[in-house]
Design goal:
The chain is built from two helices and no strands. The longest helix has about 60 residues. The radius of gyration is 34 Å and the shape is rod-shaped. The model has no long low-confidence stretch (mean pLDDT about 85). Helices cover about 85% and strands about 0% of the residues. By secondary structure, the chain is mainly α.
Length: about 90
């Protein structure tokens, strides 16, 4: 009878330890999946910011290479200014 109790206790400990290890493995996998998804979102945000940064750097280069042309384009786009002899075109948005 005593031998049976020892076997049962050992089996119970083994089952408990196996369940605990299984729980840890599953929770780790869930955490890794969540982190992977978050990393993908952050990578997309990084890519968007890098594109935006590149556009701004291009804009700075245009401004420093030919500032008169840059200011003229800004005046045309933002203020709607035209040169002498040009006909302004108004677009409905």
């Amino acid at each position: 009878m005593r031998k049976n109790k020892k076997l049962t206790l050992k089996k119970a400990i083994i089952v408990f330890a196996s369940m605990y290890v299984g729980y840890i493995l599953v929770s780790t996998q869930i955490t890794m999946i969540k982190l992977k998804k978050e990393m993908e979102v952050k990578q997309q945000e990084l890519s968007k910011q890098q594109d935006k940064n590149q556009k701004l750097q291009d804009e700075v280069m245009k401004m420093t290479d030919s500032p008169n042309e840059y200011y003229e384009r800004l005046a045309r786009e933002r203020l709607g200014l035209v040169k002498d002899g040009e006909t302004p075109v108004i677009q409905n948005k």
